Amino acid sequence: MDYLFDLSLLVISGCSAIYCWNLSRRLRALQNLRSGMGQALVNLTKSVTAVETNAAKLNRETASSVAELRSMMANIDAAESKVDILLETMDRQARETWKDHRTKVESTRSQIAEASAEFEGLMKDARSLASLMNEQLIALTRTADRIETMSRDVKTAPRASAAAVQTAVPTIDRPVHRAAAQTKMPAKAAAPAVSATAAKSIADAAAAADIAKPAAAKAPTPKAPVIDLPKPAAQPQPAAAAAKVAEKKTGENVADLVAASKAKQQALAKAVARAANLVAEDGQGADPRIAALARKIAAKSGAEAAAASAPTPRRPRAANPFNERPAKQA
Fold first, then answer.
1. Would you kindly state where each structural domain of the chain is located, as residue ranges?
2. What are the tens digits of pLDDT across the range 179-188?
3. Distance in angstroms (rounded) separating the CA atoms of residues 159 and 238
4. Cβ–Cβ under 8 Å, residues 138 and 270
């Protein structure tokens, strides 16, 4: 029994010695900071220290960033009301601007529509007046042709009496013709009557003159003064002289009608040109076709006004701008 107890103590003592030797060995390894576990502990300690330093630095930077972020959030909170006011102001200004723009567009369109309607009405009136003037010029041309035919017939009948002239010419109902018709011839100077062709030409000329009379009365230019010739004494006068006087007065009357028509045409051309210029100036941004038509009509009206202001030719038929001279009747 004692032997076993001693043996166990010996084993326990040996194990304790081995454990102590191992611990001493490990302690020396730990105490060696250049290699082994000591170096690992030193490196780990340095790493932990560096991490702590970096963590402290990051904490300081985070704290400063948080402070700056708080100040920025405060500024944003303060500027939020200003931004709301600015957005409301911009929205209100945008609505007002759009409303003004829409009002201007509508007013411009209405003005363009009114100008277009006025221009179309003016052009319609101009076309109607041009058609009427064309008819008047045709009637005047026919009158001139018939008067020439009458004068030729009168010249071919040198023995025509003044009584025949007085019965044919005064039907035109003009003062200048009444002055020519006042010349009387004695009974012994009676001659054969005017031919049937001359009488028909005189009647047609009288009818055409009566038709053209209202147009001449409406002309804007004043009428030429009527020359009332004094009544001659009761002396015999050749029939050829009476016919020449009647032809001269008839030509003056026709010239007055042509002058009145040309004055009316010139006034119309000026009015059309002025209206076209107004449409071309006020129609900016409108339909380009209307502006182009206005410029074209203004140029054409200016040319017509210049042509109308040209000297009046001797014969009215040569001044016909429509070149629609009718065929001369036999």
1. 115-319
2. 444 444 333 3
3. 9
4. no
